[in-house]
Amino acid sequence: MTSGYLSDETIIDLFFERSEEAIESAMDKYGVLLRSLAWNVLGNREDVEECLNDTYLAVWNSIPPERPKYLKAYVCKIARNNALDRVREKNRAKRGSGQTNLLLDELSECVASEADTLRLLENAEMAEVISEYLRGQTEQRRTIFIQRYFYASGLRDIAEEHDMTEGAVKSLMHRMRAELKEEFIKKGYDHE
């Protein structure tokens, strides 16, 4: 980030003061990232705008009392959850939008079913298995996994950023999902 942005601590202090500058500063600093994250999940401009509005409102309503240690991760998690909630709403009527179903299909190789994947994505035990697995990976592998499955980045974007081919990224994702599947099996999550 450039020096023109307020520090996260300062932005959080503004939230605690209930200053509207807090929202503006958060939007300035993380708006592009949040928009990209929401777009990768939703793929629809109107849904992205609503998701971002819901995200900023949720951040405003949660700080205080929350005082996040990492503001970037905090706002990204809220935006991602809002986007996934919006996809779930749409999926009640028809199968989803954006890349979300593709990502869930890819992750379903590691767990029993798409329904279980949705349920387990919110499960603290699954999150711990994934975190433990990622801690054992190289920085590049960890970053690529997070870009794909947290930020819902496309294979082409990841490949360009890491100076790889799309095929290499796809192959890496396949290997990592297989390794993660083994971790789930070791922890008692059966695939069948």
Q: How does this structure look, described?
A:
The chain is 72% helix and 0% strand. The model has no long low-confidence stretch (mean pLDDT 83). The chain is globular. The chain has helices spanning 8-16, 21-42, 45-62, 71-93, 100-107, 114-121, 124-135, 139-149, 155-161, 166-186. 28% of the residues are buried. Helix 3 (45-62) packs across helix 4 (71-93) and helix 9 (155-161) packs across helix 10 (166-186). The protein contains 10 helices and no strands. It has 2 domains: 8-93, Rna Polymerase Sigma Factor, Chain: A (Orthogonal Bundle), CATH 1.10.1740; 100-186, Arc Repressor Mutant, subunit A, CATH 1.10.10.10. With 192 residues, it is mainly α.
pLDDT < 50 runs, ≥5 residues: none
Can you say what the CATH homologous superfamily of the largest domain is? Answer: Winged helix-like DNA-binding domain superfamily/Winged helix DNA-binding domain
Tell me the number of helical segments per DSSP (H or I, 4 or more residues long): 10
Note the main sheet: none
Strand content: under 5%
Outline: globular
What's the domain count?
A: 2
How confident overall, as mean pLDDT?
83
**Global structural class:** mainly alpha
The percent range for helix content is over 70%
Q: N-to-C SSE series?
A: HHHHHHHHHH
